[in-house]
Amino acid sequence: AQSVAQPEDQVNVAEGNPLTVKCTYSVSGNPYLFWYVQYPNRGLQFLLKYITGDNLVKGSYGFEAEFNKSQTSFHLKKPSALVSDSALYFCAVRARRYNFNKFYFGSGTKLNVKP
Amino acid sequence: DTEVTQTPKHLVMGMTNKKSLKCEQHMGHRAMYWYKQKAKKPPELMFVYSYEKLSINESVPSRFSPECPNSSLLNLHLHALQPEDSALYLCASSPGLAGGTDTQYFGPGTRLTVL
After folding, report:
1. What is the pLDDT of residues B55-89, one digit of tens each?
2. How many Å is the Cα radius of gyration of chain B?
3. What's the rounded Cα separation, in Å, for the pair A87 and A37?
4. Would you call A51 an interface residue with chain B, using a CB distance cutoff of 8 Å?
5. Distance between CA atoms of A104 and B39, rounded to whole angstroms?
């Protein structure tokens, strides 16, 4: 079965410090992995994705993610957090279901960046 | 331009009303999606249209009726809803590429309240 786990409901970090939001996955076949961010009462904004190639993926707003096949992880990182990064973050894996590719979302991690 | 637009932003309806949600994209995407999202939860897939044909219906109650009039438009017709249907309804689109590497782009959502 395809699944994504975000083990932390909430992550707290001080502004200027590095941040990590964790994601692990379970999927048969090649994993196509995505990160989205959601601000209150807004839709999901695409941050970055891993399809193939370099394990370190760079995305929008200074975020990056590291694909680790042996640990089946795809953690989101940023070297220096901003208060404006405070939001809900979703990891997703795209996997084959019947004749279509479906997104499986993690449960979400609320990131709080304190001044 | 990666914009998906949704109208209305907010909708309040009674259980006997009929209303419609509208979604539009002009990115030439051939796959469009409806999701339902409860507060602080991940989006739940409802329907997928691929090349204007309904590809997936995730066992959604018949009081929700999707329609895809053309490749740029997606509607969700609502009738006889229940209070538990109150949620943020998100529309998304993706290019419709084979192989699972599609990125989905989300609209801002319609906040629906059923009284």
Report:
1. 889 999 999 999 999 989 999 999 999 999 999 99
2. 13
3. 7
4. yes
5. 18
